[in-house]
Amino acid sequence: MLAARGVKAHEEITHGDGFYRDFFKGLKGTFDRIFMTGVSPVTYDDLTSGFSIADMVSLMPRFNAAVGITEAELRAMINYYREGGHIKCDPETLIAEMKPWYDHFCFSDESYGIEPTIYNTQSVLRYLRDYISQGKAPRTLIDRDARVDYQKLDFLVKSEDLKNRKRREEIIREICATGSTYAYIEEKFPASEVGDEANFKSMLFYYGTLSFNGWNEDGLSRLTVTNRTMADLYLRYLLDNIVSEDIDIDQTSKEMQATARIAAVDGNWEPLAEKIGEIVKRYSSLRNIKGGEYDVQGFLRGLLCFSPYFAIWPELELNMGYSDLLLVPKNAPTCPTLHSYLIELKYMKPQDKDVKHYVDEACDQLKRYIADTHLEESPLLRGTPLTPLYLVFRNHELVAKGYYTRLQ
User: Fold this and answer.
1) I need a surface site. Which of 60, 62, 164, 234 has the fewest CB within 10 A?
2) Rounded to an integer, what distance in angstroms lies between the CA atom of residue 93 and that of residue 97?
């Protein structure tokens, strides 16, 4: 209702004599117990006086995995169909394919790091249905229902609270660039305040596009983009609605993809690095990408994410740090990619002159990242060699590019 018709229409059915509130009033005393799903903090707030006996359980650890599938349960499902002769592939191969796209949900901060993350049930069932009926994975692993999430995201950003819209767009750019944001999750708030920063981030969490992934030193929850499906959602939204007003996205993307193919197939990364530098400089004066590091990262990810060659992973946790961009083969039968890249971006202050300092700093970080055994063994690489690259910018101009070798 909120996403389709706005706050006013929502309030008409949930406040005063609205039928929605009256309906829940009528449930009091009718049932011994009711378990309702799909309850947002907005709905909960608007129903409080009409259904004040309800408890919000969304953040309780005992319900964290109630409506999802754990990896152990997924493995059991695959083995069940294997025993019946419907699946011949090794379970671990299928899990490795599904994990980046459907896993990593955690709805209770108390469960983080203690209980396993959960998979999206509907996405898993769709994948297995297609695999059993066709003998292979779906042609695209992005959940078809992501279109609905796109509409919800569009409503939240463009909600009737215009005063804070610029800040909401900045949050989207931050999420696109770093893959995360920090917030305290609000349990309830009125529809009229859905555009406030804390409530906006909370709604992104409740919609399942962000998930608990630790805390910062101030005790705020680190909310990360749940998986590849949600990452593509955010990036598409960024390009369609935030930077598209000033940029010829189609032409710029074509330029990027031409050099991405050379890097992916031939292993020659320099044309891609130079094209990145050229594009960043070309658009550096535009209001939508002049905010510094976050905007440059988000812009680059947006241009690369729909490439037929690379899947983009930002802020991957490696050896107690977070890498900027990991470019790995796209998950598609026809993907020709033979090379993967780990890119570290550095941004010099305008007055800085010591480029070597930033190059050395980038190489130190790359050295630490590639020493992580999880990266070397990661199924994301699909057996391709990994080249660690650094790009150093000053005033949006590429002043240094190169690669790190273990000999350095």
Assistant:
1) 62
2) 6
